[in-house]
């Protein structure tokens, strides 16, 4: 009876935290949406060689990958809430630097600003793990899903911020949009302050297994590979798709609308993904996400019409949602409470490192081999990840028979 009460009380706190973090995700997740929307445009205005126009966007991804381990160390020392407050403050400073670079027509300063936006993103990306910290085992997938649903709002808030502020500073194009991004980060400070995270003492527990031992677990290898493939391929194809659409004669507006549908597909299913995981299991939902990613590539290979591009991007978004949320839930099975910070940091470093590589390479690979080659490159990683997840699922089902 006492144990039941404890779980119930824990999920009351977990639900509150998940809602708080979903709101923080809506605000913090708008930051990369703004950088992705404007980074290439502003970059093209600041450099003569247009080859470097998308460097600010890629540097944001690099900043995210670089920041996950320092962010985790900071939160391990100070606790989740204090770390997230520092992260949001970093986001406000980053946006100001980017605005100064855009306004002053200083490409190097603008790049520093977008790199710092990536550092802020390193904190934001760990919101999903923070939601699971206080949740019972049964509620963890739903808590993660709730937080990811905040990304749907971010996908609306970010572009709308650009739309309403883009013309406010004619002498410094788009500088006001980055200032608006900073205001969103400041609002996130007030939201994150409501988080009821575990005490710092719990985060600083000593002991636990060495990280190398944890990372050698088959279930860790399977879950990280699935997350890496789901997120890396999504970033790779999403980055290439607008360029491919324009290259096929479609308008910039049609390409932008395709990305908008993609973002909605990425985060829209989050409201029920957790329920699907609870009903069908983490492995099955993760595998479904990987199969949808492959299906997106098949659609991309079968035509170059606007409809083909849009359908491929929608399937890619849903595949990312199922694959990434399912893989995140799988990772939470790999560590003990005292190990969670270092394992989560290792997971995110591997995942977002792959995203940074995908972002830097997408344009070059598209230019070298075309849209068809981009889609063919999807299948080998998906096959590897599917094999690992399927094998892990079989091992899990066979485990009770061993007793």
From TrEMBL:
The chain crosses the membrane at residues 18-41, 53-75, 82-100, 106-123, 143-162, 174-195, 220-247, 259-278, 285-304, 310-335, 347-368, 374-394. Residues 218-403 form the Major facilitator superfamily (MFS) profile domain. Coiled coil: none annotated. Keywords: Membrane, Transmembrane, Transmembrane helix. It comes from the Bacteria. The keyword Zinc-finger does not apply. One of its GO terms (molecular function) is transmembrane transporter activity. The keyword Transmembrane applies. This is MFS transporter. It comes from Bosea caraganae.
């Amino acid at each position: 009876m006492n144990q039941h009460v404890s779980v119930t009380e824990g999920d009351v706190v977990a639900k509150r935290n998940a809602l708080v973090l979903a709101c923080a995700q809506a605000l913090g997740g708008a930051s990369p949406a703004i950088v992705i929307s404007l980074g290439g445009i502003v970059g093209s205005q600041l450099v003569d060689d247009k080859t470097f126009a998308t460097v600010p966007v890629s540097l944001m991804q690099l900043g995210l990958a670089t920041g996950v381990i320092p962010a985790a160390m900071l939160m391990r020392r100070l606790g989740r809430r204090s770390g997230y407050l520092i992260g949001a403050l970093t986001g406000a400073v980053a946006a100001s630097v980017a605005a100064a670079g855009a306004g002053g027509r200083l490409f190097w300063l603008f790049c520093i600003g977008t790199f710092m936006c990536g550092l802020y993103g390193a904190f934001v990306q760990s919101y999903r793990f923070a939601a699971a910290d206080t949740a019972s085992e049964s509620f963890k997938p739903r808590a993660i899903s709730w937080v990811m649903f905040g990304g749907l709002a971010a996908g609306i808030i970010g572009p709308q911020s650009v739309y309403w502020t883009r013309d406010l500073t004619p002498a410094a194009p788009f500088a006001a949009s980055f200032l608006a991004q900073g205001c969103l980060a400041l609002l996130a400070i007030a939201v994150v302050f409501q988080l009821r995270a575990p005490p710092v003492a719990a985060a600083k527990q000593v002991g636990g297994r060495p990280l190398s031992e944890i990372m050698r677990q088959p279930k860790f290898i399977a879950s990280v590979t699935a997350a890496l493939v789901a997120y890396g391929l999504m970033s790779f194809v999403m980055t290439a798709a607008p360029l491919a659409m324009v290259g096929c004669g479609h308008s910039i507006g049609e390409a932008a609308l395709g990305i908008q549908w993609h973002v909605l597909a990425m985060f829209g299913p989050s409201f029920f993904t957790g329920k699907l995981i609870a009903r069908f299991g983490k492995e099955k939902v993760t595998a479904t996400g990987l199969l949808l990613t492959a299906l997106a590539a098949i659609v991309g290979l079968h035509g170059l019409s606007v409809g083909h591009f849009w359908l491929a991007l929608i399937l890619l978004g849903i595949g990312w949602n199922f694959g990434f949320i399912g893989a995140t839930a799988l990772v939470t099975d790999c560590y003990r409470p005292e190990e969670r910070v270092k394992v989560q940091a290792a997971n995110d470093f591997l995942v977002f490192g792959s995203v940074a590589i995908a972002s830097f390479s997408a344009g070059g690979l598209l230019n070298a081999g075309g849209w068809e080659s981009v889609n063919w490159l999807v299948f080998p990683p998906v096959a590897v990840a599917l094999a690992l997840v399927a094998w892990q699922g079989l091992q899990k089902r066979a485990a009770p028979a061993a007793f």
